[in-house]
């Protein structure tokens, strides 16, 4: 069994990748609180790459673009417990609990590494026995578990309200700046439009005006330029690079690379 996902509630699940890595360019509608039981996860953002291991917890903010790579490790599958912190539940929480001052200050979305804090580990580990019940967790119990997790997050991560208590939808932003930072993420054009505060039609129109070409042609060229830099200047292998630069399979990456630059990524120039 290569992949399995178990839900004990609409907002609480456990995932398992047995014998292969998993890769996805993600844009979550909810905040996701993740406890990694075993395996390894690599998160690639516009400016940084992070690696987290077994026992670590992390928070993915909603509307954040990232590439997620999950790997089995040390003979164990990639297994994690995931809790969705939905806007509805967070609004209910903050109606009863005041957010910290300054929580609405504009900030760049980034995922939070929370380490192996015992309070958070205890909170999420307490969910594991429920997966053995083979029945849905009552909503009242799920609500208590989620509220406990929010309380713990606020206790151990000062400033987390800037993420959790911010319910604003993406507004219209500078398209050029956004695309230059996020071109490596393989997202539908509708998602790029949404994140820049535009309809698909307006996004394509504004893109053509800014870059004098279509989004797809520009994205392919930028991704290949990044891959070329990683392979030629950083001496990384194509198999290490293609997923992080927006390509879905190695064969297509090799073909596109050679078509763009006139030689294969593994080929010595001048040979």
TrEMBL record:
Residues 173-271 form the HTH araC/xylS-type domain. Coiled coil: none annotated. Gene3D superfamilies: Homeodomain-like. Pfam families: ExsA_N, HTH_18. Keywords: Cytoplasm, DNA-binding, Transcription, Transcription regulation. It comes from the Bacteria. The keyword Flavoprotein does not apply. GO terms for molecular function: DNA-binding transcription factor activity; sequence-specific DNA binding. PANTHER family: HTH-TYPE TRANSCRIPTIONAL ACTIVATOR RHAS, HTH-TYPE TRANSCRIPTIONAL ACTIVATOR RHAS-RELATED. This is AraC family transcriptional regulator.
């Amino acid at each position: 069994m290569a992949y399995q996902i178990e839900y004990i509630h609409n907002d609480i699940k456990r995932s398992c990748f047995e014998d292969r890595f998993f890769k996805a360019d993600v844009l979550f509608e909810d905040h996701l609180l993740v406890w990694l039981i075993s395996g390894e996860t690599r998160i690639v953002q516009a400016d940084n790459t992070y690696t987290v291991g077994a026992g670590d917890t992390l928070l993915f903010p909603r509307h954040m673009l990232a590439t997620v790579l999950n790997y089995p490790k040390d003979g164990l599958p990639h297994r994690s417990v995931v809790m969705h912190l939905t806007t509805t539940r967070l609004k209910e929480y903050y109606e009863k609990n005041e957010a910290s001052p300054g929580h609405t200050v504009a900030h760049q979305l980034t995922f939070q590494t929370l380490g192996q804090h015992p309070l958070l580990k205890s909170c999420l580990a307490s969910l594991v026995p429920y997966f053995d019940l083979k029945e849905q967790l009552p909503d009242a119990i799920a609500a208590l578990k989620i509220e406990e997790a929010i309380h713990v997050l606020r206790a151990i991560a000062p400033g987390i309200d800037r993420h959790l208590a911010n319910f604003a939808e993406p507004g219209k932003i500078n398209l050029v700046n956004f695309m230059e930072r996020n071109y490596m993420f393989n997202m539908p054009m509708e998602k790029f439009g949404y994140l820049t505060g535009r309809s698909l039609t307006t996004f394509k129109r504004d893109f053509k005006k800014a870059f004098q070409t279509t989004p797809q042609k520009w994205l392919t060229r930028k991704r290949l330029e990044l891959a070329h830099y990683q392979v030629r200047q950083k001496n990384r292998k194509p198999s290490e690079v293609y997923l992080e630069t927006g390509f879905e399979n190695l064969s297509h990456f090799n073909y596109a690379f050679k078509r763009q630059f006139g030689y294969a990524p593994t080929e010595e120039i001048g040979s």
